[in-house]
Amino acid sequence: MKGRKTKFSKKKKIPKTFRKGEQAKYKGLHSGKLSQEKIEEYARLVELVREEMSKTIVGQQGVIGWLLSAMLCNGHVLVEGVPGIAKTLIVRTLSKVTGGDFSRIQFTADLLPTDVTGLTIYEEKTKQFKVVKGPVFANFLLADEINRSPPKTQSALLEAMQEKEVTIGDTTYDLPDPFFVMATQNPIEQGGVYTLPEAQVDRFLFKVIVDYPTEEDEMEILERNMTLRNFNSYELKAVINPQKIVEMQHDVKKVYMSNEIARYIVDLVDATRNPSKYKIEKGKYIGYGASPRASIGLFIAAKAQALMKKSPYVLPEHVKEIAAQVLRHRLLLNYEGQAENVSSDDIIKEILEKVKVP
Question: Which positions ≥6 away from 230 have C-beta within 8 Å?
Fold first, then answer.
């Protein structure tokens, strides 16, 4: 008797957009189909957002790129850098050009969880309780200097990021869709900061290190008199809307990825846990390796990177480009590594050199 066919026995088709000779390499593709027309449409929209943001932002193209990538992945970004490098302006501009709502929370030592999520208040006039929603109810949220507040307040935001919902009193409210958080933190060497717990940091898709602008960019900032201009004077226009962002977030998952690339991602993360297996010399400085969230992050972020470059499938170079952003905050150094002043980026660089590329 012939065996009954299941949905798993059906062979997946190789996309027609592959160049000649590449089909054998990309068998066993992950996820559904996404047409080349859609890929080019989404990539063009991302570029339009970049161009519109350049009206207010000078330089910082790397930061903008990672923010857009994280937005496509429906993830969040942790940014580390000194004050005054346009972090607030970047998120505010992004919300404006995408037609979303913007909110900002300045984290301080006395900030309460209810200052983030909201609370219920009793109105004497109506003799009823009223819900006052907090600033977390926005499409784009800037959590400024998140490590200035104690862990209890940090957790209020980080749990909202994970669950995409907030409980006020005895009622649970869904957060807006899309919901994107860019949290900033000061370098840990500065005083008056609370270290973010490892489990909480793991909820950020990317950790981005922001440096000072170049001399050329700083000259342009002065020439354009940007520090004295009102934000509304830039006359920014919305080039996409929140509904389109949600559509793009759904479709980015359909970008093709081969089993070989997926295995490469697993190997990169495994190298953070078992460095000796891959002959990683700096592996001796790793206290704890990356969690499975790192594999998931690399998986979806590589797809977003491919889409932004108009590629119908993920290549090893796409994985390499986002590896540091996904892994740097998930690698915990031991005391020896901290004493030797080794950075997680140094280890990631060696991992990318040593792990075999498909």
Answer: none
Mean pLDDT of all residues in 62-83: 90
Q: Render pLDDT for 119-139 as a digit per residue (tens, 0 to 9).
A: 988 888 888 888 889 999 999
Alpha-carbon dihedral 113, 115, 117, 121, rounded to 10 degrees: 110
Q: How many CB atoms lie within 10 A of CB 83?
A: 10
CATH of 37-247, one of 3.30.365.10, 3.30.930.10, 3.40.50.300, 3.30.1330.100: 3.40.50.300
Q: CATH 3.40.50.300 in the chain: give the residue spans.
A: 37-247
CATH code linked to domain 255-358? 1.10.8.80
Listed in order, the ranges of the chain carrying CATH 1.10.8.80 are 255-358
pTM of the full structure: 0.84
